């Protein structure tokens, strides 16, 4: 490890040494100039693996990030450390976008965070090609793969983006990628397996106790939640799939005088921000939340993460439990398994994976009745396609995918929706849609298998993600 990297680590981040595989990864990037894929659990220090090289190199680093809120929080944290970083996204004015892009090209900023969708803008592409790009960091790299749990179509164009940038040194980072997804990431980067080294850090978190409980009633769930809060004093997160269920359990806890906050998508932005800040700044706060909560939470002393309803995949589960116990102290990760929850998740899978016929019907409506869609908003589409069933969100899913593929832009509720292309081929092919649905069903099955597993749960997770063999840890209830 070069003295320069250690000096950067101490000066900007306040650490005397690297942890885990950070040193080996940074060595390969800086000393060997060779590509890396980093598979590291949430809270394991993935960001340092590209931030230190970014500061050590003479040119700039492009960071591809899928979430606006996540990139904004990361840039804010870097600026507090006097690190010259910035972001460009839809939340800022065109003037600021131009200023920041020019500043990056001129070397004022060492790191520029953007979503992959930014490369759709020709003005951005024309300007960014003038910059000296020494490193491309692909955060949340599992979004590259359509077989992953959070596919973003523009992520699959990264080989094209790399070529536009002069095929710079590349590091792909994620907490969650099965062996098949790892192969897909390498392919979508435009690389061969021999071009890139995969670094597995695995679930090396011995302070996490993994539990799973078979429950039959809401009362049992409430009792286990209260027991967890009592046995693991401090802050914790209780995850729910449905806002309605979250609100029901919030009322149960209020009746039992258990203090807590709530966080979900129906809250006003100001309420969500207040709840998030309270959680970050409190040493002892329980948060009831949907999975929208957590991506931007950097809190080391979370003592428990409870899934009160089944997660949809091992990828989601692994990412969410990784938020517990980052300070190394004992913490609990508990799954409350109820057979009826499978029905909810099955519906979620169906709604999240519209078939080719649904896309064809929707796109036909957009082409023939666009005035009516813009005049009456998304409710008109629901009425035509799902008969106003508000629990069926296939319309929202399909509109989002059409936008991600660049086929539409605008918002029907703001009367400015318009089509830009024909229906994208990947959404119109029956076999492709059926394959994606089957893959989602297999990921849900993996959660059931995790619950029913009678051996060490840590070993199950390691095997699922293809991590190097983990030994039985003695810190889970594998004989549930």
Write a structural description:
- This protein is α/β, with parallel strands linked by helices and 480 residues long.
- It has 3 domains: 3-200, Rossmann fold (3-Layer(aba) Sandwich); 208-338 and 439-465, 3-Layer(aba) Sandwich (Rossmann fold); 346-428.
- The protein has helices spanning 3-13, 22-31, 48-56, 68-80, 94-105, 122-128, 158-164, 179-188, 218-231, 243-255, 269-281, 314-321, 341-352, 356-368, 370-376, 378-385, 394-404, 425-428, 430-452, 457-465; strands at residues 35-39, 60-64, 85-87, 111-114, 133-138, 169-174, 196-200, 208-214, 235-239, 261-263, 286-289, 302-307, 331-337, 408-409, 418-419.
- It has a 7-stranded parallel β-sheet, sandwiched between helices.
- Helix 13 (341-352) runs antiparallel to helix 19 (430-452).
- The model has no long low-confidence stretch (mean pLDDT 89).
């Amino acid at each position: 490890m070069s003295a320069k990297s250690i000096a950067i680590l101490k000066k900007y981040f306040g650490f005397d040494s690297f942890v885990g595989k950070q040193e080996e990864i940074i060595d390969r990037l800086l000393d060997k100039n060779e590509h890396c894929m980093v598979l590291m659990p949430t809270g394991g220090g993935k960001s340092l693996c590209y931030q230190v090289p970014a500061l050590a190199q003479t040119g700039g680093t492009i960071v591809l990030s899928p979430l606006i809120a996540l990139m904004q929080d990361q840039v804010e944290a870097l600026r507090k450390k006097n690190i010259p970083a910035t972001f460009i996204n839809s939340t800022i004015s065109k003037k600021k976008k131009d200023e920041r892009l020019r500043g990056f090209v001129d070397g004022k900023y060492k790191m520029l965070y953007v979503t992959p969708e930014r490369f759709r803008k020709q003005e951005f592409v024309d300007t960014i090609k003038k910059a000296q790009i020494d490193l491309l960091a692909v955060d949340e790299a599992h979004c590259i793969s359509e077989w992953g749990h959070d596919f973003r179509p523009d992520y699959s164009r990264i080989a094209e983006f790399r070529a536009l940038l002069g095929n710079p040194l590349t590091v792909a980072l994620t907490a969650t990628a099965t062996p098949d997804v790892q192969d897909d990431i390498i392919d979508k980067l435009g690389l061969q397996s021999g071009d890139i080294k995969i670094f597995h850090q695995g679930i090396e978190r011995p302070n996490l106790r993994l539990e799973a409980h078979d429950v039959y009633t809401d009362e049992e769930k409430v009792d286990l939640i209260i027991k967890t809060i009592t046995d693991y004093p401090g802050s914790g997160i209780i995850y729910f799939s449905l806002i309605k269920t979250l609100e029901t359990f919030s009322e149960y806890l209020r009746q039992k005088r258990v203090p807590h906050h709530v966080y979900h998508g129906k809250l006003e932005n100001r309420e969500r921000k207040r709840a998030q800040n309270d959680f970050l700044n409190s040493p002892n706060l329980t948060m009831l939340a949907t999975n929208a909560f957590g991506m931007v939470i950097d809190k080391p002393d979370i003592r428990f993460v409870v899934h009160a309803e089944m997660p949809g995949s091992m990828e989601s589960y692994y990412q969410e439990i990784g938020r517990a116990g980052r300070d190394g102290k004992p913490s609990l990760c508990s799954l409350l398994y109820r057979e009826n929850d499978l029905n909810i998740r099955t519906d979620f899978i169906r709604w999240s994976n519209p078939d080719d016929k649904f896309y064809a019907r929707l796109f036909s409506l957009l082409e023939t009745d666009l005035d009516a869609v813009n005049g009456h908003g998304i409710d008109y589409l629901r009425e035509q396609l799902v008969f106003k069933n508000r629990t069926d969100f296939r319309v929202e899913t399909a509109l989002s995918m059409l936008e991600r593929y660049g086929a539409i832009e605008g918002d029907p509720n703001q009367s400015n929706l318009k089509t830009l292309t024909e229906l994208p081929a990947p959404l119109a092919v029956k076999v492709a849609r059926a394959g994606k649905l089957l893959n989602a069903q297999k990921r849900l099955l993996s959660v059931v298998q995790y619950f029913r597993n009678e051996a060490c749960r840590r070993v199950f997770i390691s095997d699922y993600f293809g991590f190097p063999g983990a030994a039985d840890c003695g810190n889970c209830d594998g004989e549930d």
